[in-house]
Amino acid sequence: MSRSRRLVIGGVAVAAVLVLSFVTGIVSFPPPHGSTNNSPVSVASSTCVRPPGFFLIIADLSGFNDSIAHGAPVNLWPIIRVQQGDVVHILVCNMDMSQAHGFSIQSYFDQGVILAPGDAYRIVFAATVPGTFVMYCNIFCTVHAFMVARLIVSN
């Protein structure tokens, strides 16, 4: 077997393990190296039915929650406001049936998730660091530039 074929097979195997870890349950990500945020993020596969207490973010061809109509990328939308110390619950759903979208939160969830068409994830973390953080699509898509939102953590 050629070296390039072994590399492709190895890459596919790693991708399959990552996908299975998301599909089969909760995955916890540590904060990024050097971050002052020491709160892990839990991610669980879900359906797009918003549980009580969750912020709902819909990714589709109109951006995040119709961010294009709200003037993104100049005017970030939606805006989630929480207090420092709050546990933040976000349900993000990809309602675009033709392409994948991503979701990341600057400093809190830089690794993000990739949502295939129809996917939904529950994202939960403690808002330990005050400030204004960008929530954004972490993969290229046709409306990528418009998929920017804001998380404001007040102290």
Helix content: 10-25%
Strand content: 35-45%
In CATH terms, the superfamily is Cupredoxins -  blue copper proteins
Architecture (CATH level 2) name = Sandwich
Regarding CATH, which class? Mainly Beta
| Major sheet characteristics | 6 strands, mixed
Low-pLDDT segments: 6-35
First CA to last CA: what distance? 58 Å
Number of structural units classed as domains = 1
The count of helical stretches stands at 1
Structural class: mainly beta
- Net shape: globular
Outline the structure in words.
Strand 7 (101-105) and strand 8 (109-115) form a beta hairpin. The chain has one domain: Sandwich (Immunoglobulin-like), CATH 2.60.40. It has one helix and eleven strands. It has one helix spanning 3-23; strands at residues 27-29, 41-45, 55-60, 63-64, 79-83, 87-94, 101-105, 109-115, 120-126, 131-136, 148-154. Strands 1-2-9-6-3-4 form a six-stranded mixed β-sheet. It has a five-stranded mixed β-sheet with strand order 5-11-10-7-8, with no helix packed on it. It is mainly beta. Helix content is 14%, strand content 39%. Mean pLDDT is 83; it is low at 6-35.
Ordered list of secondary-structure elements with their pairings:
Elements: H1 3-23, E1 27-29, E2 41-45, E3 55-60, E4 63-64, E5 79-83, E6 87-94, E7 101-105, E8 109-115, E9 120-126, E10 131-136, E11 148-154
Parallel strand pairs: 3-6, 5-11
Antiparallel strand pairs: 1-2, 2-9, 3-4, 6-9, 7-8, 7-10, 10-11
Task: Give a brief outline of the structure.
By secondary structure, this protein is mainly beta.
